[in-house]
Each structure stands twice: as structure tokens, then as C-alpha cells.
Amino acid sequence: MVAPAARGSAPLVTPTRVVVAVLLAAPFVGTLWVTSYARVEPRLGAFPFFYWYQILWIFLSALCTVAAYLLVRRENRRRGSSASTRAAEARSAGDTGTTTTTTDRTEGGTR
């Protein structure tokens, strides 16, 4: 079960995220529903529909992915700083979140 959002925080399910989910699901539905395009006609030049439909989805999938990326990026900017931005800022500040200490086993000390 999903925990409710904290007071004052943005909701987890937004209209933008629903659109992103549809954009990312469309290529799967379009290519996995084989009975919708398992035919020869209409031809595009020498290519039967079965083949050019699948090739068309290569380009449509790329467009859907780019659109989903841009929508998520815009929503993250609107929400404030995103998790990826915070992580990038931490890396640039030199904070990795973990401290490592190597032990020199031959001398029994730490470096």
C-alpha cells in the first residue's frame, strides 16, 4: 500500500505522470497487439503492412520517450529540485554519502 503524501508535499500521481505512463505504454501496446497489424495490405512500396508498421513504431517509440522525458523534466523543475539534481549537487560538492576507510593489512593500521 502506498503511504499518503506528507502535508504540503506534491501528490505522487499527477496528470503529467499519467500522460507519461500512457506515452511509455503506447509502444508496447502498439507492437505486442500483433493481431491488429498481422496483414499484408496496405503496402508501402514493396513492404507489406506487417513490416512497415513495426518499423514505424521504432520512430514513434523514440518520440514517445523524448516527450515523456521532457514532461518529467518540466514537472521536476516545477516541483523544485528533483532527486537527480540533489544527487548531482552532492557529487559536485564532493559528498558521496558514504565514508570509506582502507585498512593496510600488512601494518595493521588505516590509511
What would a concise description of this structure say?
The protein is mainly α and 111 residues long. It is built from 3 helices and 2 strands; from the N terminus they run H-H-H-E-E.
Distance between the termini: 46 Å
Helix amount: 40-55%
Largest sheet: 2 strands, antiparallel
Give average pLDDT, whole number: 81
Organism: Actinopolymorpha singaporensis
Biased composition (Low complexity): 81-103
Pfam families: DUF3311 (PF11755)
Transmembrane segments: 18-38, 50-72
What features would you describe in this structure?
The chain is built from three helices and two strands. It is mainly α. It has a domain at 17-34 and 50-64. A two-stranded antiparallel ribbon has the order 1-2. α1 packs antiparallel against α2. It is elongated and about 65 Å long. This is DUF3311 domain-containing protein. Keywords: Membrane, Transmembrane, Transmembrane helix. Pfam families: DUF3311 (PF11755). Residues 81-103 have a biased composition (Low complexity).
